[in-house]
Amino acid sequence: RGAEDALAKIECALPPPDRDRLRKVAIRAPEFRSDTATRTRLDELERACADQHKVTIDYRDAASAATSRTLLPLGLWFWGGAWTLIAWCELRSDFRMFRIDRIAAMAVGPETFRHQTGRRLKDFYEQMRANGDVPPCFDFNAAGL
Predict the structure, then answer these.
(1) pTM for the full model?
(2) Taking a C-beta distance cutoff of 8 angstroms, is the pair 98, 75 a contact?
(3) Which pLDDT value is given to residue 128?
(4) DSSP secondary structure string, the chain?
(5) What is the rounded distance in angstroms from the CA atom of residue 134 to the CA atom of residue 137?
(6) Residue 83's closest CA among 126, 131, 120, 44?
């Protein structure tokens, strides 16, 4: 409860544009440990999510296969060992999750996007729920869904 009160006070102290951005971006972080490079990349992605800027990445999957993707960044999650970006992938025309530590290169472009039904973070969560892929600790009500 004390942490919630402190966060509410911090939110009130922020200028209105930052307050609005804080409310828009969904970041889930049960614990936080990351190096400076990862933190910088997370900050860039958080801004891209909030400002709805498309992101282009060069990515290596678990098998080290390389791909380039253009993404609509929606949110950031920390899964206990790795940060991931939840995004709408234009190549696959579907939601994808990308581990931040596997992004070889990244550029936040000037092109913006609008949230469309079926491509929003809320839709991603609904898809997870329908597929039974929701982590046991996830509370849709607390996430505002």
Answers:
(1) 0.72
(2) no
(3) 86
(4) -HHHHHHHHHHHHS-HHHHHHHHH-EEE-SS----HHHHHHHHHHHHHHHHTEEEEEEEE-TT--EEEEEEEEEEEEE-SS-EEEEEEETTTTEEEEEEGGGEEEEEEEEEE----TTSSHHHHHHHHHHHT---TT--TTTTT-
(5) 8
(6) 44
The one-letter code for the residue type at 136 is P
Element (H, E) at 41: helix 36-51
Report the range of poorest mean pLDDT among 76-85, 92-101, 108-117, 131-140: 131-140
Residues 6+ apart with CB under 8 A from 38: 83, 100, 101
Instruction: Tell me how many degrees the CA angle 37-40-46 measures, rounded to the nearest 5.
Output: 140
d(CA 55, CA 108): 5
Tokens 């966060």, residue located = 7
